[in-house]
Amino acid sequence: MRFKVPQNIDMQDRVIGPLTMIQFVQLIVGFAVCYVIFNAIPRPLSYFVMIPVAVLFLAIVFIKVNERPFSVFLLSIVQFLTLPRKRVWKETDSGDTKYQFYRKAEKKVAVEPKSISHDQITKVAQKFDQGK
């Protein structure tokens, strides 16, 4: 018996014309934001605020950068600008090596050395010897 194997399962379904459901919702949100800006700000100034917002939402909906949505591209830009870019090679006490960001401060915990007397060591050694 042969079965039909689904193809292109990673593609989203088109709901309205060439738009997927997510793109359609993003477009509606963009128009709603522009409508609020148009009604909340006086007319000549509202055009200067509304046009960049409309262009941003249209870019998010329709433009792809390297076959990825523009929203992922914007998120990458924000991460690039906010996260530290310099890494410092550091060797830990256990001999492991790792990269650390230079801005992140390590939490240093003060460890108090324990004092063990000679009598305690001999008691532990005798317990081990008795076990053999």
What can be said about this structure in brief?
The protein has helices at 21-40, 43-62, 70-82, 118-131; strands at residues 14-16, 19-20, 64-65, 68-69, 87-91, 97-101.
Principal-axes geometry comes out as: elongated
In which range does the helix fraction lie?
40-55%
Largest sheet: 2 strands, antiparallel
- Rounded mean pLDDT is 83
* Total count of strands: 6
Secondary-structure class: alpha+beta
Alpha-carbon Rg, integer:
31 Å
Specify the number of helices.
4
Ends: how far apart? 67 Å
Describe the strand arrangement of the main beta sheet, using strand numbers.
Answer: 1-2
Strand content: 5-15%
Q: Give the low-pLDDT segments.
A: none
Query: What is the N-to-C order of secondary-structure elements (H for helix, E for strand)?
Result: EEHHEEHEEH
Topology, element by element:
Layout: E1 14-16, E2 19-20, H1 21-40, H2 43-62, E3 64-65, E4 68-69, H3 70-82, E5 87-91, E6 97-101, H4 118-131
Helix pairs in contact: 1-2
Describe this structure in words.
This protein has 132 residues and is an alpha+beta fold. It has a domain of 69 residues. The protein is 51% helix and 14% strand. It is built from four helices and six strands. The strands form three sheets. A two-stranded antiparallel ribbon has the order 1-2. Strand 5 and strand 6 form a beta hairpin. The longest helix is centred in the N-terminal third of the chain and has 20 residues. It is elongated. The protein starts with 13 loop residues before the first strand and ends with a helix.
Key structural traits:
alpha+beta; 132 residues
